[in-house]
Design a protein that fits this description.
The complex is a heterodimer. By secondary structure, chain A is of the alpha+beta class. Chain A has helices at 19-28, 34-37, 39-44, 69-76, and strands at 9-16, 84-93, 102-116, 122-133, 139-152. The longest helix of chain A is centred in the N-terminal third of the chain and has 10 residues, at 19-28. The model of chain A has no long low-confidence stretch (mean pLDDT 92). In chain B, 22% of the residues lie in helices and 31% in strands. Classes of the chains: A alpha+beta, B alpha+beta. Chain A binds chain B through residues 21, 24-25, 27-31, 33-36, 45-47, 51, 53-55, 58-62, 68-71, 82, 85-93, 96, and chain B through 21, 23, 29, 32-33, 35-41, 53, 62-64, 66-68, 70-71, 73-74, 78-80, 82-89, 143-144, 146, 148.
């Protein structure tokens, strides 16, 4: 196990926001709100286009340039996928993500620490943040992920 | 499905309930979300692989039902109100599980940007076991939230 330094950038990539993908994601997430799928409804609400659900940044794996993106990331982090789980995720929406935007994505290690619980289980907690900036360089979304790897049991 | 008796967002006070979400999970849900979300870990679609890993069958990726649960926020106040959404994955969700999700307003206060609602969220299975726990910030602004009238 090699802990990663906080601030280490794992990847930078383009993240295009496409109408069909947003609609597909909204349907799969059972969130069929008209602002996600109906351009007229979005314009009527004062938006310039449909917007994406708050959880949409989780589709970044399509744009990172690896077939098995999550497994590839774990390999980079030197985590064992068989002993690791996705423990928590927090989405921050700073501005709506609009269909048609070409976002710039940055995936960065936010934290990496090992803790041993009172019952003797040692776990590694890796914080992985996804930052999405729009064409004007404005941060529109931050996603904070925590992955947990069980290292040892007493 | 969600409840139709939705309290207007701007009337939600501390203790107010968000509309409930109920759904029985199918394998089709899981496969559809894999395609839409990009999680192709075989533990979510290959029974043999899942059993070999010690599970009774495939199970859903947590982000699937996290997306399901976000619907209570959209149904309550519209997508534009959702400023923060945090979820902890507490128990696997299997095909056939009957999920019930909802939320309650824990804090309501005026800020410079508008009225902030801090909500606690939950999702349980048919055995009353928590599968998700979370919280969210909803901001109600004079410009509107995108709530469906």
């Amino acid at each position: 196990m090699n802990e990663q330094a906080a601030g280490h950038v794992l990847a930078r990539f383009e993240f295009p926001v496409e109408a069909g993908k947003v609609a597909e994601f909204a349907a799969a997430g059972r969130t069929p709100h008209p602002l996600f799928t109906n351009r007229e409804a979005a314009l009527g609400a004062g938006l310039r286009a449909c917007i994406a659900p708050v959880t949409y940044p989780s589709t970044f794996v399509f744009h990172i340039g690896a077939d098995a993106a999550v497994l590839e990331l774990m390999k980079q982090l030197k985590m064992n996928p068989a002993r690791s789980v996705h423990g928590e995720v927090q989405f921050h929406s700073h501005q709506p993500i609009h269909v048609g935007e070409q976002l710039q994505a940055t995936l960065v290690v936010a934290s990496d620490e090992v803790r041993t619980s009172a019952n003797g289980v040692t776990r590694r907690f890796v914080g992985l943040n996804l930052l999405l900036h729009n064409q004007d360089g404005v941060l529109v979304s931050t996603t904070e992920n925590t992955f947990i790897e069980t290292l040892s049991h007493d | 499905m969600t409840d139709t008796s939705i309290q207007p967002c701007d009337e939600l006070a501390v203790g107010g309930l968000l509309p409930m979400f109920r759904h029985v999970v199918t394998r089709t849900d899981i496969v559809r979300y894999a395609g839409a979300g990009g999680d192709f870990n075989p533990i979510h679609h290959d029974d043999d692989y899942a059993r070999h890993a010690g599970f009774p069958s495939v199970f859903a990726m947590g982000l699937m039902h996290a997306s399901f649960l976000s619907r209570v926020l959209y149904d309550a106040c519209g997508p534009l109100a959702v400023k923060r959404y945090r979820i902890r994955f507490t128990h696997p969700v299997f095909p056939g599980d009957q999920l019930t999700g909802g939320g309650v307003v824990e804090e309501r206060r005026q800020t410079d940007s508008g009225v902030l609602l801090v909500c606690r969220l939950f999702m349980k299975n048919q055995n009353d076991r928590d599968v998700l726990a979370g919280d969210a910030d909803l901001m109600l602004t004079p410009a509107g939230t995108g709530a469906t009238p």
